[in-house]
Amino acid sequence: MDSARLFLAVPLDEAVRDALLDAGRRVKPALPGGRWCGSNALHLTLRFFGTLPLDRVEDIDTAVRLAIEGREAFDLRVQGVGGFPRLEAPRVLWAGVSDGSAPLVELAGTLNAAFGAAGLGMEERAFVPHVTLARFKRRAHLDPAVLEAAVRGAQDHDFGVSPCETLVLYASELTPSGPLYTRVAHWTLGAAK
Description:
This protein is α+β, with helices and mostly antiparallel strands. The protein has one domain: Cyclic Phosphodiesterase, Chain: A (Alpha-Beta Complex). Helices cover 26% and strands 37% of the residues. A hairpin with a 7-residue loop joins strand 4 and strand 5 (92-97). The model has no long low-confidence stretch (mean pLDDT 90).
């Protein structure tokens, strides 16, 4: 394999992933046609690179090391449910981040600048911390009463706290049964050089 679909993410604690899966099971009947993420796909993506030659992993490594130098780990509270572009007609159903979102946004910005300097391009869209729960091929137009009943309480629901202490570079292989993720590299915040 000379190239791979690569993305950088913060893995989530198992208890948080379990809480997200449980919420997805409760909401799923009201949101037909979605592709729901399994436990292995519940993470906070910091940067999707697309398909890159594997020799670019060295450039990613250098950029990440520079961006996290001197940066300590912090906690993230996964809380609330929303949708892109809006919950009433979502293409993506997501869980948000409350506590810890400011340092996560700052980290993503620092990483974005480092990737740009490394010749890996820069993300133009603003980083919005979220965990994707489901994707829809086209916007799901839902009965507002059914949707409201399904997500009642979930919009502010606390799914738990997960540490942001490790960044993982994943390779993603698309298969008919869903994506397969392989760890390519990882970095620890607060680790000595």
